[in-house]
Amino acid sequence: MEVSRREFLKLAGLASAGAVVTASSGALLTGCSPLIGMEDESLNAKNMGMLFIPSRCEEGCHDCIDACNKMHNVPKHDNKDHEIKWIWETEFQHAFTEYMENELLKERMEHMPFLVMCNHCANPACVRVCPTQATFRRKDGLVLMDYHRCIGCRFCVAACPYGARSFNFKDPQKGLQNPVPNPNFPKRTKGVVEKCNFCSERDIHGQFGSPELPYCVEACANKKGSLGESALIFGDLKDPEFIEQFEKIQKDEKLIPLRRKEIAGTQPKVYYLV
Amino acid sequence: MIEKALTGSKKYWLWLGFCATLFGVGAAFYIDQLFNGLQITGMSRDVSWGFYLANFTFFVGVAASGVMLVLPFYLHDQKEFGKITILGEFLAVVACAMCITFVTIDLGRPDRLVNLFLHPTLNSILFFDIVVLSGYMLINIIVGWSILDAEHKGEKPRRFVKPLIYISIPWAASIHTVTAFIYAGLASKPFWLTAIMAPRFLATAFAAGPALLIIICLILRKYTDFDPGKVAIKKLSTIVTYAAIAGFFFLLCEFFTAFYSGAPEHTATLKYLMFGEGGTGLQPYMWGVMIATVIAIVLLVNPKTRYRDDTLVIACVLLFVSIWIDKGLLLVIPGFIPNPLHEFNQYFPTLKEAIITFGVWGLGCMVLTVLYKIAISVKLEVGDQEIEH
């Protein structure tokens, strides 16, 4: 078979172009995993959760909420209807609506602040209803949002039994100073849903050094002087050491673990020790 | 055939102009929404679905009700419906198109609509709903158009049409069932968490849709030379009567379960709607709808008033409007009131939101008028020959 010089050059050009495309798309697919540790099999065995002990809270302290809002650039809008809330404070009867009529319990809990946030459910209703998998459950039990895939249908907002999800009714930049408090955290646009992410952007599993804590937990521990006295505790509910710590607090401080809206069947992973 | 839509009386063009204006104004305000986000609506963090999705839900019902003409004609050989099945099919097409528009304008990021198909998610009811709605629209436009075309040419309809018609019958039930499942599958919303949601949706749809068709038939008889036939309207009004009674019965069933059991989560929303506990914004609408429905049922059950055109029109208008308000304000919205933390935050559509919504109505009326113009011109041309089926 005779190949002219011209044809040979054409073929060679095509072949090399093909090689470049294949190599670069391969790099794109493998090189930039969208979230740290998505492919890490060691995350499979984990099931991250949070403990909250309201009796340890200091009156008027909002360090946890402030730290979260600052590090995630949570906007502050004047109109209450358009609020974005990741972690916020409410009263017992609002956090635990099923005990609303229980006067004895209510009386004892009345003066305590109750922090509410995404429960990172083991059986999340939001993930079930999302039509684009923009919200999904990571292998370590974190329920996360892809702000770049969300179409803003708000089905997840309707499905969440905890009211933990916020929709950007307006441009979030309008509720933030310029420059934003933390330029390293992904920017959101108007028209997408957002919520607490258990600080998935931090090295919570210690893959690159000693494990980092979610900002709210860190802020509380800093305020209290030690992690042992923190009102917020973060850990792996499958880790026997963590469970031991969990049980010790219950015993020592005579507390029982409650979860919000058990009736919704979502298996929430934020425990309230009351 | 399409050329038949291009000639018409002055009234025809005036009406089309009116619809186009409505659509144009709505579109202009939608551009505002594109730039400023959904903050221009009355929706909030707590009531996160509003007028758009409520109208979507209502029009899924209107689309499904086309089957109330197709089914008796093709399965029960009710020949009187032959002349107007095309009206039902084209109404279904337009209603589906309106539904898809309502879902799209409700999105925060409509530019990402295509993600629905790039990342198809079988466990999401919304994904299924879009699939069945587009499918139903396609089936009806194919069936309606090919039958009309065959009539126009004096031929038998093409062979593929018949199986499509049979598929369209259960498909009609499926679109409204899947839409009901969007709401009835959420443990977070006790007001919606009821197994009779889908049956209730179907019953009210089969009342509202045929009621609209009766109104349309009477308008066509008055303003065009087309006569839908007395018997057809009579039979349609029977369908409306039974469906309206079934729908009202289902509502009473909801009341019983909530109030007799006294389960707090199930009664909270109904107490809000009926007795204004937590806000009285929607209370007058709730009572208004119940009274209007009862009046309509009384007018329909009594044969004397059912067979008189003027009282029939009153009953149909009352039913159509009350079912629209029922779905529009009293079903989707109160599902969010109180919110999961038992806080009461009110919702009412803003003016801009209403204008955009009626813009979609304008678009629907415009397309429907054009399709009906074509259908009626063909029917008048071929005359009273019996339709093959």
Task: List the SSEs and their pairings.
The complex is a heterodimer of chains A (274) and B (389).
Chain A: H1 5-31, E1 48-52, H2 63-71, E2 87-90, H3 92-95, H4 103-109, E3 114-117, H5 125-129, E4 135-137, E5 143-145, H6 155-159, E6 166-167, E7 193-194, H7 215-224, E8 232-236, H8 240-252, E9 257-258, E10 270-273
Parallel strand pairs in A: 1-10
Antiparallel strand pairs in A: 1-8, 2-3, 4-5, 6-7, 9-10
Chain B: H1 10-36, H2 51-64, H3 67-75, H4 85-106, H5 115-118, H6 125-153, H7 161-184, H8 197-223, H9 230-261, H10 264-275, H11 283-301, H12 303-306, H13 309-329, H14 351-382
Helix pairs in contact in B: 1-14, 2-4, 2-7, 2-8, 2-13, 3-7, 4-6, 4-14, 6-7, 7-8, 8-9, 8-13, 9-10, 9-11, 10-11, 11-13
Brief overview:
Chain A is α+β, with helices and mostly antiparallel strands and 274 residues long. Chain A is built from 8 helices and 10 strands.
Describe this structure in words.
Chain A has 274 residues and is of the alpha+beta class. Chain A has one domain (41-273): Alpha-Beta Plaits (2-Layer Sandwich), CATH 3.30.70.20. Helix content of chain A is 29%, strand content 12%. In chain A, strands 8-1-10-9 form a 4-stranded mixed beta sheet. Chain A is globular, with a radius of gyration of 23 Å. Chain B is an all-alpha fold and 389 residues long. Chain B is built from 14 helices and no strands. In chain B, helix 2 (51-64) crosses helix 13 (309-329) and helix 8 crosses helix 13. At the A-B interface, helix 3, helix 5, helix 6 and strand 6 of A face helix 5 and helix 6 of B.
Sheet with the most strands of chain B?
none
- pLDDT average of chain B, as an integer? 91
Percent of residues in beta strands of chain B: under 5%
Number of structural units classed as domains of chain A: 1
Radius of gyration of chain A: 23 Å
Proper CATH architecture of chain B: Up-down Bundle
Q: Tell me which CATH architecture of chain A applies here.
A: 2-Layer Sandwich
Shape summary of chain A: globular
Order of helices and strands of chain A: HEHEHHEHEEHEEHEHEE
How many individual domains of chain B? 1
- Helix and strand sequence of chain B: HHHHHHHHHHHHHH
- The secondary-structure class of chain B comes to mainly alpha
CATH superfamily of chain B: Formate dehydrogenase/DMSO reductase domain
The shape of chain B is globular
